[in-house]
Structures are given as C-alpha cells and as structure tokens.
UniProtKB/TrEMBL annotation:
Transmembrane segments: none
Record has Repressor as a keyword: no
Residues covered by region (Disordered): 1-58, 383-446
One Gene Ontology molecular-function label: GTPase activator activity
Function text: Inhibits the Ras signaling pathway through its intrinsic Ras GTPase-activating protein (GAP) activity. Acts as a negative feedback inhibitor of the calcineurin signaling pathway that also mediates crosstalk between calcineurin and Ras.
Protein name per UniProt: Carabin
UniProt keyword list: GTPase activation
Biased composition (Low complexity): 18-33
Length: 446
C-alpha cells in the first residue's frame, strides 16, 4: 500500500513540466532579455500590479499597523485576542509582514529560541549522500522562473539545498520527501534560511505529521476523509468521481503535500498559507472542496468530463476567471466544514482503516489544529520546563517512649524556702544571716 501510494504521489510531479511550479499567474511572456519580475519575484509573471478587488493602499497600511501592534505583544494577543488574529489572517497578512508573522503563527520562533545554534550545526554538517543526490536533482524544479531560483549557484537554490539537507539530518528517520521542496522554497521567498528551516519543521511535525515520512500514512487517512466530506457536501460530484474512477490519491496528494503551491496562482497560495498557519489542516480541506466544486460543480462541467483523463484535467486546469483572489478566499471560508466536523470524520475513517496496512498507523491526535493550539502547547511546555519540581522529603521519626505523668508538687503548708533548700541540696555552712526585725518573705507561711 505504501509503495502504491508513493507511486501515485511521484507520478504527478514527474510528468508535469517545470513551469507548473510557478502557479497560473507566472507564465513566461516575451523573449528573455525583456522579461521582468512581477511583485512576487516571478520572471514574466502577470502580477506586476495588484489585480481587481485588491485592497487599496490605505487599507493595507491600516492592516499593517494592526499586525505591528498584535505582534509587538504576541503572547498577550494570542492569550486574549486570538479571534482577531484569525480574522486578520483570513483577510490576508500584508506582504511586508509575512516574514514577521509566519514564524509567530506556527511557533517557529519558540523552536529557534529553544535550540540556538542547531541549524548552523546541521547546515555545516555533511549530509547523507543518498539524500543529497536526490535533493540536488530536484532543486531546479522548484519555481525555476522565480528570480531567487534561476541560477544553480544562486542564493535561492543553495539556501534550499541547505534547508532540505538540515531537515534530513534533523529527522533522519523521515529523510527527504519531494513535496518538501516547494514548501521550503515558498518559505525561503519570505524568510532567512534558519527561520525557514524551523517553519518547515513545524509544518512537517505539527501541522501535517505523517505526511512527509516514508509511509505517508496520514495522506491515506486524509484522502478517505476528503472523499467522505465530498459524499456529504457535494454528493453529485462524489458520484461522478466514482463513476469515472478518479480516486482521491490521483489529485489530492499534490494539493495537500505542497500546500497548493504548485496548483494555484501565487497570490492565492499566500492567502491559503496565511489561513493555514492560523487554522490548521481544516483550511486545506476547505480549499480542496472549493476547487472540486469549481471544476465539477455544474451538470455541464460533469458532462464535459466523461472519463478519467478529462476529469483529472478539469481538476488541474481550473479557469483563471474562477480563481480571483478575494472571491475565491470568500468561497473557501464559507465552506460548511467546521473543526468539529473534520475531527468527527477523522475518527470515523480512522476506525475503518484496515489493520493490515503496512507501516505505522496514522496518529491524527499528534496534529495540532492551528496557531492557538500550538501557542498553548508551547506555553505549557515552557511552564513545565522552567518550574523545577520539588522532590518530597519523607521523614520517619521513631515513636516516642511513654513518659510517666508529672505529679503536682504538694506545697500546701510549706514554705518556698524549704522547697528551694530541698531542691538545691544542703545549705551552705556559714554564719547565720542577720535579719532585721521584720519577718523574711521566705519565712512567710501560706
């Protein structure tokens, strides 16, 4: 099963042309010397200017000020005002502040703070020759028309090599997955290599555990969950996919593993990532369901796809007119899928998985649902790590020996002088002390 799943995942990457990693807004136009980079860094892209529906400059400045204020008091913001963070992420993080916000949302800044110097050691260490050869072969495929990754000796490809090599050394039991290349490349477009590395660690181990390992057990589980959600939310589309024989593993892994970096226009990719780092894997399911509805939602669309190849082509080539940034993200967030619905369906499908599957079973409980859960887990871990546990001391005392009860001295009819004499021993010999005519206080009788 794992081998078959791996073949399904590799095939779309290998068959596609290198330009597919650009997104539909980054095609070449014009001869080489006259190509210019758009505002995202793609050579010959069509995003040199903001498109229709893009927020005006004044609104962008207001959002930037809100994000500066929230990130300046991040712990307070996440503790008391996470709903505001989620809404601002849905509106889109300003481009100038993604480098500041993404590590905060995914908790990479805490990982980097708790492990100083780790990335430098991994980057300087020699990598596994097997993984290094595979990574080197894939470098030119990651956004080849982006200005960072044009030259094999440029800082983009070299930084990508170091980040992916560092992860194979950080998690040698998982190694390298081909889908990690586009994810790390998008991170490097916005972050320095060390911060990009820790963000990649959080995505692979906290947001999507079990996705990039050798067995990809979580991908299989989420594929079954996606089909169950299709059956409930889009029953006609689900019936059509079953009739033509299009299973979820033929199109879903490329979407989820790459976080849609190779399937959507780059402005929408960034918006999806903003929401994904805030709300978790639920966003990927919402985006996938939205894409299926846009491709096969009408009767005319389904009639135009009578077979498997036509249906896959429709899923991979959605018209750009249906992928306008604001309209598309509004459809994503309005998809009727809550976190509770997703977790309930995951539990149902997990119970239905056959026990004979090779490899480790999926562990969906290890996946944290977004930035708030990650923040709370890191706060709890920090509190437990800083507080030194007090070792209880057990003191065993021997039993006390019983003492005889004290008897009250009989002082009735006796003088204090006599008592003192008996308690102190015999009186000191010497001449009698002369007294005055008055009677001594000690000779007073009671």
């Amino acid at each position: 099963m794992a081998q078959a799943l791996g073949e399904d995942l590799v095939q779309p990457f290998e068959l596609q042309d290198d330009s597919s990693s650009l997104g539909s807004d980054s095609e070449l136009s014009g001869p080489g010397p006259y190509r210019q980079a758009d505002r995202y860094g793609f050579i010959g892209g069509s995003s040199a200017e903001p498109g229709p529906g893009h927020p005006p400059a004044d609104l962008i400045r207001q959002r930037e000020m809100k994000w500066v204020e929230m990130t300046s008091h991040w712990e307070k913001t996440m503790s008391r005002r996470y709903k505001k963070v989620k809404m601002q992420c849905r509106k889109g993080i300003p481009s100038a502040l993604r480098a500041r916000c993404w590590p905060l949302l995914c908790g990479a800044h805490v990982c980097q703070k708790n492990s100083p110097g780790t990335y430098q050691e991994l980057a300087e260490a020699p990598g596994d020759p097997q993984w290094m050869e595979t990574i080197s072969r894939d470098l030119h495929r990651q956004f080849p028309l982006h200005e960072m990754f044009v030259s094999p000796q440029g800082h983009g490809q070299q930084g990508l090599l170091q980040v992916l090599k560092a992860y194979t050394l950080h998690r040698p039991e998982q190694g390298y997955c081909q889908a990690q290349g586009p994810v790390a490349a998008v991170l490097l477009m916005h972050l320095p290599p060390e911060e990009a590395f820790w963000c990649l660690v959080q995505i692979c181990e906290v947001y999507l555990p079990g996705y990039y390992g050798p067995h990809m057990e979580a991908v299989q589980l989420d594929a079954e969950v996606f089909m169950a959600l299709l059956r409930r939310l889009l029953p006609r589309v689900h019936k059509h996919l079953q009739q033509v024989g299009v299973g979820p593993l033929l199109y879903l892994p490329e979407w989820f593993l790459c976080l849609f970096a190779r399937s959507l226009p780059f402005p929408i990719v960034l918006r999806v990532w903003d929401a994904f780092l805030s709300e978790g894997v639920k966003v990927l399911f919402r985006v996938g369901l939205t894409l299926v509805r846009l491709a096969l939602g009408t009767t005319e669309q389904r009639l135009a796809c009578p077979g498997l190849l036509e249906t896959l082509g429709a899923l991979r080539a959605i018209p750009p007119t249906q992928l306008q940034e604001e309209v598309f993200m509004s459809q994503v967030h309005s998809m009727a899928l809550s976190e509770q619905d997703l977790q309930r369906e995951i539990r149902v499908q997990l119970a239905r998985l056959p026990e004979s599957t090779s490899g480790p079973p999926p562990r969906p409980q290890a996946r944290l649902p977004g930035a708030q859960a990650i923040f709370e887990a890191q706060q709890l871990a920090g509190a437990q790590g800083s507080a030194k546990p007090e070792v209880p001391r057990i003191v065993v005392q021997p039993p006390e020996e019983p003492r005889p009860p004290r008897r009250k001295p009989q002082t009735r009819g006796k003088t204090f002088h006599g008592l003192l004499t008996r308690s102190r021993g015999p009186p000191i010999e010497g001449p009698p002390r002369s007294h005055r005519g008055s009677t001594s206080f000690l000779d007073t009788r009671f």
